Amino acid sequence: MMCPAETPEGQACGLVKNLALMVYITVGSAAYPILEFLEEWGTENFEEISPSVIPQATKIFVNGMWVGVHRDPDMLVKTLRRLRRRVDVNTEVGVVRDIRLKELRIYTDYGRCSRPLFIVDNQRLLIKKRDIYALQQRVNAEEDGWHHLVAKGFIEYIDTEEEETTMISMTITRLRPDEAYSETYTHCEIHPSLILGVCASIIPFPDHNQSPRNTYQSAMGKQAMGIYVTNYQFRMDTLAYVLYYPQKPLVTTRAMEHLHFRQLPAGINAIVAISCYSGYNQEDSVIMNQSSIDRGFFRSLFFRSYRDEEKKMGTLVKEDFGRPDRASTMVRHNLSRAKLDDDGLAPPGTRVSGEDVIIGKTTPISQDEAQGQSSRYTRRDHSISLRHSETGMVDQVLLTTNADGLRFVKVRVRSVRIPQIGDKFSSRHGQKGTVGMTYTQEDMPWTIEGVTPDIIVNPHAIPSRMTIGQLIECIMGKVAAHMGKEGDATPFTDVTVDNISKALHKCGYQMRGFERMYNGHTGRPLTAMIFLGPTYYQRLKHMVDDKIHSRGRGPVQILTRQPAEGRSRDGGLRFGEMERDCMIAHGAANFLKERLFDQSDAYRVHVCETCGLIAIANLKKNSFECRGCKNKTDIVQVHIPYACKLLFQELMSMAIAPRMLTKGLKNAKGRK
């Protein structure tokens, strides 16, 4: 019922589940026809029986409600299932017989997971080849389709509880009457690959991968760029990533056809070599062909939409779109309004960068505020600017009105993203990596045929992760490219590596996909044979342009006076416990003080030398006083982090007095 591969990593692992491909959630049906049927077929109500009969009979439950008992449950279950297969009883109805507890549970409610299975009778499928042939020959898609198979009794829906009472064969070949255990089969899977969910169904040969890799790909497949909808040019989504030249994969699964992955693909068939080359593809980084990038390899578009609307601030007063007037408007001086038209919007085709205003809006200043400020300002600037770390071009502007007759606007900004060092890519087998270096075509290795790879992956990524599916995909992709047809990588089929290798050998290549290559820097042949072929790669939405962050100075938190956190707030980079421990181990005391104190939340307090408590200081008048011991002379200045000062004050609020012992501390009783 649930996909065995598709579940999140981390905290929600195993808790968030995804449905398998053919799973159907029941919509529910009336229980009344079932209750009538039970009454007609010998179900005894509590009024008709004595309590002594109940232990010998089978209890009947409908949607969890005990409705009576029955003395011949075998006959009742067979009749119910026969009627369900003839669609005289709703196909969603679940019939569960628990022999140990002597219970028959019938469900008609909504929200249950159920899935279709072929019905097996006497070790034979009820559906025959002639029925499948008739399906293939039909002219109209609506005529004699799926519902016809269900109505004929070839297929039935089994829910999670009823599945516990069935014996399901994975394939037709297991239905062998001559074997003893085969006599117990009641159903057969339509295809074993239907146990997978949508995201796991696009992985080629997932049955040849270590299971966590399929889980990783199920998550990364959602982050891959492609054409996410056909009308993306007319939509104003908050964020959108669109690949320039998506390709349908050379190696596909049968599920992809039904999921329309070929119509809206999310990746490119790249020529991938698995090799160590120059050392810049260590630790899950990859080397990419710069000449391929220049020709448009994995180039993409990034769209971000900004929106705003006018709001009423009273009966007559409202916000207005327009270019803010410096003479009458309190403006923010760090923003540039040069790109705005008179209507307050940046026109399509305008190139914009960080801190450029793209939607100009002003709000009136209330009379109460105006009295306390300079009288020349009547409005306040509430414009929306581009994010400070982004650049792009205004792609589309949508100006319309809402239900209240007030204007609202959406502005979409477009930017071109070219692959560069630091961008993230992944195969369909959970083998993710960032670009570590780009080389032009003349510096990349080449084969005897003159083929240069687009991507070079480190061979150390393969043995420990056991993603053999990627290697099989590569050699099958080589065969598919040479023969001009797609390769079938559907899981749980009879495709073997030997068969693919023989087909590759017939195409004139080495059986296992190895090729002789030459060093791009020296022109000499590489000592080792290199595994090379087409592999479907995905560009993920994690790009270095959206991650890069540095700060010399910037905003601090109000409470702790430490630097703010996060790239969007222009925050600082945390110098954590482990970094601190490294500096202590190095003995770099001055550097440690600079990071943790001078560049963070340096603060000074005045401390009484007599009692060690924080004293009151008025530096303008040069007067100091300790409220605790009335000392006005023996007071020293101490540098502490502001967070430490907050801690001391919090302790003081709990009647705990932290005392700072300075070098010349003098106690009132003469103790030092």
UniProtKB/TrEMBL annotation:
Physiological role: Essential for the completion of the three rounds of mitosis in female megaspores required for the development of mature gametophytes. DNA-dependent RNA polymerase catalyzes the transcription of DNA into RNA using the four ribonucleoside triphosphates as substrates.
Compositionally biased residues, Polar residues: 363-376
Top EC class for this record: transferase
Entries under PANTHER family matching the protein: DNA-DIRECTED RNA POLYMERASE I SUBUNIT 2 (PTHR20856)
InterPro entries registered for this protein in UniProt: DNA-dir_RNA_pol_su2, DNA-dir_RNAP_su2_dom, DNA-dir_RNAP_su2_hyb_sf, RNA_pol_bsu_CS, RNA_pol_Rpb2_3, RNA_pol_Rpb2_4, RNA_pol_Rpb2_5, RNA_pol_Rpb2_7
EC number(s) recorded for this UniProt protein: 2.7.7.6
Swiss-Prot/TrEMBL keywords: DNA-directed RNA polymerase, Magnesium, Metal-binding, Nucleotidyltransferase, Nucleus, Transcription, Transferase, Zinc, Zinc-finger
CC terms in the record's Gene Ontology section: RNA polymerase II, core complex
Main localization (coarse): nucleus
Gene Ontology biological process terms in this record: DNA-templated transcription
Origin: domain of life: Eukaryota
Family statement: Belongs to the RNA polymerase beta chain family.
Chain ranges of the DNA-directed RNA polymerase subunit 2 hybrid-binding domain: 199-569
Taxonomic lineage: Eukaryota, Viridiplantae, Streptophyta, Embryophyta, Tracheophyta
Protein name, per record: DNA-directed RNA polymerase subunit beta
Organism of derivation: Brassica napus (Rape)
Domain RNA polymerase Rpb2: 1-25, 60-121, 146-192, 571-662
GO molecular function terms attached to this record: DNA binding; DNA-directed RNA polymerase activity; ribonucleoside binding; zinc ion binding
Substrates-to-products reaction catalysed: RNA(n) + a ribonucleoside 5'-triphosphate = RNA(n+1) + diphosphate
Location of the protein in the cell: Nucleus
